[in-house]
Design brief:
The complex is a heterodimer of chains A (186) and B (452). Chain A is α/β, with parallel strands linked by helices and 186 residues long. Chain A is built from six helices and eleven strands. The model of chain A has no long low-confidence stretch (mean pLDDT 96). Classes of the chains: A alpha/beta (186), B alpha/beta (452). Chain B: This is L-lactate dehydrogenase complex protein LldF.
């Protein structure tokens, strides 16, 4: 018997009485979705900047290699997406669009079509996500009901910059991924 | 080695043990604050528990569904009955890809299967990429906590090992400096690895996808740069619907560290063009645990670690005192299911205060199961010091004469015997505790003298 068969048959032979799958209720969330989102983002060590501040940031030259896949704001890229993700190692700043945000925890949903390459929001030194204010929902349940079963090979909720507290519980930003997360609300 | 003797080792460094206790309690308090911000917290726990209960009664159906949907998505699904088969599957993929170095993000399952030593024996370099895991890997130690792998170490220890392995400045203990040194070191590893291994937090049969949560982004750095992603999951990691993630992602990070969500929550549904995803479904004792009705619902665990942070024994004895891959209260009900002899002392490493059950996001009755395991273990051993003394007490209490004589004897001996006899190794309760002063006479004697 293959392992597949032996695992499945040892579960089947228990003849368990099925317990009902609970229905998922709707839960209330904050009234001020944008304000709560901004507060949650700050708690996660991310920050909000304006479109103008972003343009100034890119023009300042502090970030030589900028990739932008954003369709929500004018193109600011200085660098075309390479074929291989490993060629992104020196990417300084990535600007991408988020599909929706969650006010309770500042999680922003992104799919393949937003990323270009899946590695982009992780390998970049600094990350900017552009999000429409109207796409901010209350909680994770609202988020999943909007996302539905939409097919994307990869989807991710990003809620802040890369962080760790593995050394004596001291919070350090910039473990492996982006050292900062800035969100532009449009 | 038994839990009590390992715990005694941990407590030798009093200052460090105190720090460990306080730090984990701090994490527990953060969990309390985070959970109290959610008015429907208890409702979420009830739902999560109900969803997991449901899955366990239909696990065969959901595993087949997951396999079907994931395969349709282009994920290659493997089945492993035990750790050995799991390790062989991983190795065979690495051989096929001619891969000699891999990066791995946090996976308690691969710890349970002892994948690292197995791969190293076959000439594969394994790099754990979670910072805490990399630290303990440098020290050739296992993680001491499932969420905070290096919580038993102080920054001085880490500074020392980084100086040796990563040539950081001697004596520089700044966490920012040390973390950024690790970032640089691990980036080189990410850039070079052709295969990346991750664990799985949740797998969804409805969509054939699986979800991996990290704060560091190390799982994503690994898999998106490599050509092949191998994801290893215990068969109990299933939740039926994508919408169920709304419940579990709200509970997981709040229970684990008091954050509202982990910073990266990645949903893998199909490989990127030209790449591969392998998903290994591992039993390794889980179907056996499913058969044990009293202990079945330990399989609902989502590995948040909340029961460890709150446990008065875990906080004061450290993860290594348990000698099992998963330590703490949940480990003490899972491990005896794997090897009841080896882990026979773990269910006794508890005060049965029930705090673990109170914080568990999926409402596992951990402390009740600890009690049940004690019954099983005592029965299996057929002998216990407590059982013997209870029998003796039974004899004494049924005979008034025996009671009177034994009381006199006990008072006399406690007063006159040298301390070394009373506080002997058989009397665990005598450790760090003193008996109250022994009265000169029994109550009966006093009553006869004063009131008759």
């Amino acid at each position: 018997m293959s392992s597949r068969e032996s695992i499945l048959s040892s579960i089947k032979e228990l003849n368990q009485q099925e317990k009902a799958l609970p229905d998922l209720p709707k839960f209330d969330s904050a009234q001020d979705l944008v304000g709560t989102f901004e507060q949650s983002l700050q708690n996660n060590k991310g920050s909000i900047i304006s479109e103008l501040e972003l343009t100034d940031l890119v023009n300042s030259g502090a970030y030589p290699k900028v990739y932008s896949g954003s369709k929500l704001i004018p193109d600011l890229k200085t660098f075309e997406l390479p074929e291989k993700a490993t060629d992104l190692n020196d990417l300084d700043l990535a600007i991408i669009d988020g599909q929706l945000g969650v006010s309770e925890n500042a999680a922003i949903w992104l799919e393949d079509e937003n990323l270009g390459l899946r590695a982009v929001p992780f390998i970049t030194q600094h990350l900017v996500i552009v999000l429409e204010k109207s796409k901010i929902v209350g909680n994770m349940h609202d988020a999943y009901s909007l996302i539905g079963l939409h097919h994307s090979g990869f989807g991710v909720f990003i809620a802040g910059p890369s962080k760790t507290a593995d050394i004596e519980q001291s919070l350090v930003i910039g473990a492996h991924g982006a050292k900062s997360l800035r969100v532009v609300l449009v | 080695m038994s839990h009590p003797s390992q715990a005694a080792n941990f407590l030798k460094d009093e200052k460090r043990a105190h720090w460990h206790d306080e730090t984990l309690w701090f994490v527990r308090e953060k969990r309390d604050i985070a959970s109290k911000n959610i008015p429907e917290w208890e409702e979420l726990r009830r739902l999560a528990s109900g969803i997991k209960d449901h899955v366990l009664t239909k696990l065969d159906y959901y595993l087949e569904e997951l396999e079907k949907k994931a395969s349709e998505n282009g994920i290659k699904v493997h089945w492993a009955k035990d750790a050995e088969e799991h390790n062989e599957i991983v190795l065979s993929i690495l051989k096929e890809k001619k891969c000699k170095a891999i990066v791995k993000s946090k996976s308690i399952l691969t710890e349970e299967c002892h994948l690292n030593p197995f791969l190293e024996k076959h000439g594969v370099e394994v790099v754990d990429t979670d910072l805490g895991e990399r630290i303990v890997q440098f020290l050739k130690q296992p993680p001491s906590h499932i969420v905070l792998p290096a919580i038993h170490l102080k920054k001085g220890d880490i500074s020392e090992i980084f100086h040796e392995k990563l040539q950081t400045e001697k004596g520089n203990e700044d966490p920012v400096y040390l973390t950024h040194a690790a970032r640089k070191h691990l980036r080189d590893k990410f850039m070079a690895a052709k295969v990346a291994i991750t664990g799985v937090n949740f797998a969804i049969p409805e969509t054939g996808e699986f979800v991996v949560c990290t704060n560091e982004g190390n799982a994503d750095m690994g898999v998106h740069l490599a050509d092949v992603h191998i994801a290893c999951m215990g068969i109990e990691k299933i939740i039926p619907r994508r919408a169920d993630l709304g419940i579990f992602l709200r509970l997981l990070a709040r229970s684990a560290t008091g954050q509202s969500i982990t910073n990266y929550n990645s949903h893998f549904r199909s490989p990127a063009p030209g790449k591969e995803i392998h998903l290994i479904l591992v039993d390794n004792g889980r179907t056996k645990q499913l058969k044990r009705e009293k202990f079945r619902n330990s399989l609902k665990c989502i590995r948040c670690g909340a029961c460890m942070n709150t446990c008065p024994i875990y906080r004061r004895s450290g993860g290594y005192s348990y000698g099992s891959t998963v330590p703490g209260p949940i480990g003490s009900i899972l491990s005896p299911g794997i090897d009841v002899k080896k882990y026979s002392t773990l269910p006794f490493a508890s005060t049965l205060c029930g705090s673990c059950s109170d914080v568990c996001p999926v409402k596992i009755n951990i402390h009740e199961q600890l009690y049940e395991w004690r019954q099983e273990i005592t029965k299996a051993q057929g002998w216990s010091a407590k059982g013997m003394s209870m029998k003796m007490a039974n004899g004494i209490f049924t005979s008034p004469l025996a009671y009177k004589i034994s009381g006199k004897l006990l008072r006399a001996s406690l007063k006159n015997l040298p301390k070394s006899v009373i506080y002997n190794p058989l009397n665990a309760w005598g450790k760090n505790r003193d008996l109250p002063e022994v009265p000169k006479e029994s109550f009966k004697e006093w009553y006869l003298k004063n009131r008759s």
